[in-house]
What we know:
Number of strands: 3
Family: Belongs to the 'phage' integrase family.
Protein name: Tyrosine-type recombinase/integrase
Organism: Flagellimonas ochracea
CATH architecture of the largest domain: Orthogonal Bundle
Oligomer: single chain
GO molecular function, one term: DNA binding
Domain Tyr recombinase: 101-273
Strand order of the largest sheet: 1-2-3
Amino acid sequence: MDGKSQLIKFQKIMELKGYSPNTIAxxxxxLKLFHLKTGVTYWNSLSNIEIHRVxxxxxxxxxxxxxxxxxxxxxxxxxxxLMFDRVLPxxxxxxxxxxxxxxxxxxxxxxxxxLERTSNLKHKAILATLYALGLRSxxxxxxxxxxxxxxxxxxxxxxxxxxxxxQVMFPLALKQLLRKYYMEYRPKVYLFEGRDNGQYTASSxxxxxxxAAKRAQIKKVVTPHTLRHSFATHLLENGTDIxxxxxxxxHKSIKTTMIYTHVSVSEMEQVQSPIEQLRVTL
Length: 282
């Protein structure tokens, strides 16, 4: 079995073991990048030293991001364990320390502009659902019709990151919009479907968001995750308890949710800069 065939078999094993589609896609992407670099025919013929050398080249010379480093190491460790029952030592290949980056957050007026300038009903429903529920891209794509409970006013999120299911609120404004959307598009299984009633794609979702941001003349780099960041930050600014936000987002640790305290403007607006106390005309 050659290198590419081994990758195909590994993908099938991950699918059988119930790994999420996002994890499978990320691991396969990392392994294909590694395979392209090495051109290896038989993966198990690579020594630990050779694997370390290639990883080090990626991590240092190629300036691979922290997240990409973690994905490559995780994929390699799992691949060699499942395919060859081989323990890959990676203690000396720990990813570079993750830099702290403040998430991009939209102002409420910017979210309003994206929705107002989106005339396509399906696209508007997608944008509204992302923002109203604070969903990750994969969670939106996997959202099925039977996950929405209008009576209990809840939406169930299944198979989320870390295989943690959760429930979020189902706001009336979103419910009314989705009712109009459903009457026009009549999706069969998933809330948002592509061609032939298949699952909507991540690339199509990204295009919907970027096009809406462009129409709204927003200069920030806007992705589907930006609407999730905005959802959390706006909740915090409205006085919602940080632990409730943690549950709504499906964060395992409160530390992850605390990042939104760095971008909330509600507290900053109460602080007066010392320049305001200067007796000088600017």
